[in-house]
Amino acid sequence: VANVFEDMLERSVPMYQECQSLAVHWCAQFAKANTSVYDLGCSTGTLLLKLARSVDKNKGIAIFGIDNSQAMLEKSRKTFRESPIPCEFIEADLNQGLSIQNASVVVMNYTLQFVLPENRVLLLKNIYEGLLPG
């Protein structure tokens, strides 16, 4: 699935590329020096790679891609070989909670609907608590 995932999304999610472009635009504007950027449900890392290419590599931004699929994370790591900024990819189930720290940006495109309803409030609370003011 990981090898055809992007093609699947582009064909089945209306305005997928436009959403990616907007997310990169806003993330690049809000990513602050010496902070962290997270993509929860990063799948193949496409959005994070676009973001890494759009921010100043000298800003000291730490990039984290989180996904529960090892196959997606392997694809992400291959994708990121071309990145100007390294990324740490972490296998995690968002239903189990997640520690967000020192974040200026947290992206969760097409992901929250896959978190069980009873776990969503805690996840959103953890994101909120990990975001820096501003």
Distance between the termini: 38 Å
How do the strands line up in the largest sheet? 3-2-1-4
Mean pLDDT: 88
Instruction: Assign the CATH class.
Output: Alpha Beta
Q: What is the CATH architecture annotation? A: 3-Layer(aba) Sandwich
SS strand fraction: 15-25%
**String of helices and strands:** HHEHEHEEH
GO molecular function, one term: transferase activity
Pfam families: Methyltransf_25
Domain Methyltransferase: 37-134
InterPro entries: Methyltransf_25 (IPR041698), SAM-dependent_MTases_sf (IPR029063)
Notes on the protein architecture:
By secondary structure, the protein is of the alpha/beta class. It has a single domain, classed as Rossmann fold, CATH 3.40.50. It has five helices and four strands; from the N terminus they run ααβαβαββα. A four-stranded parallel sheet has the order 3-2-1-4. Helix 2 crosses helix 3 (46-54). The longest helix has 15 residues, at 16-30. The mean pLDDT is 88.
Question: Could you give a short description of this structure?
Answer:
By secondary structure, the protein is α/β, with parallel strands linked by helices. The chain is built from five helices and four strands; from the N terminus they run ααβαβαββα.
